[in-house]
Specification:
Helix 17 runs parallel beside helix 19 and helix 19 crosses helix 21. Among the domains are: 30 residues; 123 residues, NTF2-like, domain 1 (Nuclear Transport Factor 2, Chain: A); 306 residues, DD-peptidase/beta-lactamase superfamily (Beta-lactamase, 3-Layer(aba) Sandwich). Strand 15 and strand 16 form a beta hairpin. The chain is α+β, with helices and mostly antiparallel strands. The chain is elongated. Its main location: membrane. It is found in: Membrane.
Amino acid sequence: MKKAWIIFWSVFVVVLGGFGFLFWDMWKEGPMSEGEKAKTAFSAYATKWKNQEFEGMYEQLSLETKASMTKEAFISRYRKIYEGIEAQNISVEPLYNGEVTPGEDGKISFHYRLQMGTFVDPISFTGKATLVNETQNDKKDWYINWNPTFLFPDMQEGDKVRASTLPPKRGEILDRAGRRLATSRVVVDIGIHPGEWNESSQAGKNQVSKLLQIPTADLTSIVSANAAKSFIRIATLSEDDQRIQTLGATKGIKLQKKQVRYYPYKEAMAHLIGYMGVMTAEEYEKRKEQGYHSSDMIGKTGLEQLYEEQLRGSAGGRIAITTANGTEKKVLAVRSAKDGEPLTLTIDAEVQKTIFNELAQEAGTAAAISPKTGEILALASSPSFDPNSFVTGMSSKEWKQINENLQKPLLNRFARGFAPGSTFKPITAAIGLETEAISPQDTMSVKGLHWQKDASWGNYEITRVSDYGAPVDLRKALVYSDNIYFARAALAIGEEQFVQKGQLLGFNEAIPIPFPIDKSKLYNTEMKNEIQLADSGYGQGEVTMTPLHLALVYSAFVNDGSMVYPSLVQGEKKEQYWKSDVIPADVAEAVKQNLLSVMEDPKGTGRGARVTGIRLAGKTGTAELKQKKGELGKENGWYAAFDADHSRLLVTMMIEDVRGRGGSHVLDARIKRIFSKVLKEGELVHSAS
């Protein structure tokens, strides 16, 4: 019994203590004060402000504020301003200085601190909030008495916020002599004002149609589809275009000047320099975190694309409060633009133009280097296009003409690999001499124009152009360009050594320059059989080379067997050689002497390109492209040549579809003119680096 009483009193004390604590807590808290209610209301408002929930913010405004501004106007104003300045990471911190209590007027006021990021720099300010206690929708609470200072302290009713981007000046692209390859110029947008245009005379409309080569019906359709606009761009002309004066005097035509990227060398440099254009939605998504805007121009191809970050610089910006009429009252944030850095190339613009002009009306490509320094002097592709058309705007008709051109002017041929034909034979010669599979003195006797190793080849035969009726040694094989000799040389070398030595020369390896160029290949997947190996010996089979790689391999014949390290951009550190001692010095010299014979021997295939006063060493080539033996395939003509005595210029060139036009001899006069202009007429400028 005693034990039961002990349990009863224990439970009683615990329960009594619990009730006591509960009543004490309730007594201690008491009803929430008006100050605490106001703080709670502002805290909820600050959270919505931080999250840019403008509709919810409006619901917490006082009746007086709501009477002066509709919900739509409030939301629109905040959204327009915050989107314009790219407001982000907003924080609103109340600054309660002591106890918060209503004043004599029944209102509660306190300060707050706002911070936000913008597209320029962070902005912060201290504002004052006033709350009133009133009933809305049967709910009595504290509501914010809003005014324009909540946007920014210096704003008044009617004021606006102007956000403007300060674009950087894009870095120029220069050649080795400082010539501008990519720069800027002023152009004039020709536009239609729909209202005035509809009132203009038919004669005026016809005149515009004739001057701009736009059918009158098209102009009418353009105006109808864009009637709400005040300026409809229909063309862009250079500032000095003589048509501008007449167009400007025509009713309904408006002129607007703007600065755009400009490419002075036009088609000659298009594939190398590239061009700029407006970003796509996909490009914007990738770059918006870097400060880009959806309407920004960006490098689309070539060096403009590859060096976008260096050339672009970084945009600045300015955020200011203005009056209703646009007068600036206060600058809230400003950051100067940082101009892009220039890009100086090893390219010689005049050499490039000379070589490109020699490719005119042809589909082809060429590369030129300084074989001693590795400086790339020219990389040309033909046919081409005017990159300025992509900047100023191309009509659908112009785009169709380019895109449907069978010669593919948009294709960058200098970045692609092609069968090198007989220009590959010196490479086989060098490998053969080094491996002792052949020697300069050894001769080969073959009668007729066809040869096969044995009956296992079936109907497949190697064909040469001429039978000179005498045994052929290495010199004659290069001078005559004898396919059979080099097919047999490749077989004597053997697949393993042929592939191994070829890879040491940079096959299947990226050329170390900041420009995407195909890797040269000895085969696609494997050397399938002896026939393919034999064909590879004279640059057929599946062998492909880019003109630049071919030039770099030939530089080994200038540099005692070492391939020079290429450079496209001045100032970039590099080694002297890309591939050191890949050919024994005596072998390189022996091949070089034979290449001199190709150009100087009366029977040499390169004799048509000889230049008086300049000793050229080189090799011609005709690559036959066909799917199977016996069919008449397409032929590409090749040349690889350098000045043997001073080694200032090495040029490789390929022209497509030369069958029936003389094969590689289509290039004779072109190569001759290039070396004459560049070396004899002093066109080549020494690097400033």
